[in-house]
Write a structure and sequence with these properties.
The complex is a heterodimer. Chain A is α+β, with helices and mostly antiparallel strands. Chain A is built from nine helices and 15 strands. In chain A, strands 1-2-3-4-5 form a five-stranded mixed sheet, covered by helices on one side. A five-stranded mixed beta barrel of chain A has the order 6-7-13-10-9. Chain B is of the alpha+beta class. In chain B, 41% of the residues lie in helices and 23% in strands. Chain B has three helices and five strands, in the order E-E-E-E-H-H-H-E. In chain B, a hairpin with a 4-residue loop joins strand 2 and strand 3. Classes of the chains: A alpha+beta, B alpha+beta. At the A-B interface, helix 6 of A face strand 2 and strand 3 of B.
């Protein structure tokens, strides 16, 4: 049995073990930014091993609970990443958990909130290549009383449709392989110069991939942004009474935009220009 | 249609966020968002306690010294009927 280091995804603490050394190496590489030596008392343990009914396939469990069974190795691994995301986004009930990617420049956090397949990860990866720090490509938690963003530096998930734009993130031949999914799962240490766990909210953008449209950034009101943020939240409904009255002050001085993306470089430039303009004003 | 003699009250399932020039309403029962402009915000603020539609119009008339109330009145009734239809306020 091979055991991984311990990881923390938001407040979900876990480790990973497997009969396959390659699987443990793959997981440790992917979650390299989430390694922690704390939370021993609440840590849970994934196990990936031969399926009990069909030993040519794999089974993934969390403690005694089966997560997926009778799957190929790469499919079971995809199940691990899905389950970690699911538990991480449910682990911060006192913060507003937004379905968003986030990057930071110094202590200023920029979030890109949108449903799946909107280009959140691609946009974040484009900005990381320009020197910004990585916070998450999936879920950022906002402390509504302080305005502090809390990141979740999971591996970047690069869909096949974006891989030609981000060729520099292609998995290297010396990295553990055979466990990859159709997505590239890029360790933050490869995608970004730095990882940032917390930052203060300074920019909110709602991206939408539209291949035939012009890439464009348009300002929106804080009321419109608040509705979009809440609509892209995993847990707004559970804390609406506490959260909604706090959003006006949280967003009062934060520029908010919609971003239509057909060209990644142009989109990154527009976002950076907007923050430069905000600083200048 | 609004019965002018029945009291209208905010639905307890509605949560509000007060933004610079707009009010955002979230109805936890339907999980839906709504935005009110400045006039809508004013009407909503008048429903801080149950009032009839006629009382709402009268309060607006007082606030604006009676000017243009005959023009505003249909808009207020339309807004109130929309808020009722959406379940954001209810006749009690």
């Amino acid at each position: 049995v091979y055991e991984s280091a311990s990881f923390r995804a938001h407040s979900f603490a876990f480790s990973f073990a497997s009969s396959e050394l390659g699987a443990v190496n793959f997981v440790e590489g992917a979650f390299d930014a989430l390694v922690t030596d704390a939370y021993e008392d609440v840590r849970r343990r994934y196990w990936l091993g031969p399926d009990r009914a069909d030993s040519s396939l794999f089974e993934l469990s969390l403690d005694d609970e089966v997560v997926v069974s009778r799957m190929s190795g790469s499919a079971a691994m995809a199940g691990l990443f899905w389950d970690v995301n699911r538990r991480a986004t449910a682990s911060e009930p006192d913060r507003l958990m937004i379905h968003a990617s986030a990057v930071a420049r110094d202590d200023e956090g920029w979030i890109f909130a949108a449903p799946s397949e909107s280009g959140k990860s691609t946009l974040a990866a484009g900005l990381l290549a320009r020197g910004l720090s990585y916070m998450t490509d999936e879920a950022v938690a906002i402390d509504l009383t302080t305005g502090v963003l809390h990141g979740y530096a999971k591996p970047l998930s690069i869909d096949p449709g974006s891989q030609s734009l981000l060729a520099h993130l292609r998995p290297r031949s010396d990295e553990p392989h055979g466990w990859s999914t159709r997505q590239w799962l890029v360790p933050p240490s490869r995608a970004a110069r730095a990882v940032r766990q917390t930052a203060r909210l300074r920019l909110v953008v709602f991206p939408r991939y539209a291949p035939t449209a012009d890439t464009a950034l348009s300002a929106i009101s804080t009321a419109e942004a608040a509705i979009e943020l809440c609509s892209n939240s995993f847990n707004f409904h559970q804390q609406a009474r506490a959260a909604l009255p706090l959003l006006p002050s949280l967003l009062a001085d934060v520029p908010c935009y919609r971003l239509t993306v057909s060209n990644l470089d142009d989109a990154c430039e527009l976002v950076e220009a907007a923050t430069r303009q905000d600083h200048a004003s | 249609l609004i019965d002018g003699r029945r009291l209208l009250a905010r639905s307890p399932s509605v949560v509000i966020g007060e933004f610079e020039s707009e009010l955002v309403l979230y109805d936890a029962a339907s999980r839906s968002f709504h935005r009110l402009n400045s006039t809508g915000t004013e009407v909503w603020s008048l429903l801080d306690k149950p009032r009839t539609s006629e009382e709402v119009v009268a309060a607006l008339a007082t606030r604006y010294a009676g000017e243009f109330v005959h023009l505003v009145e249909p808009d207020v009734f339309r807004l109130l009927s929309e808020l009722v239809a959406l379940g954001l306020i209810a006749e009690t």
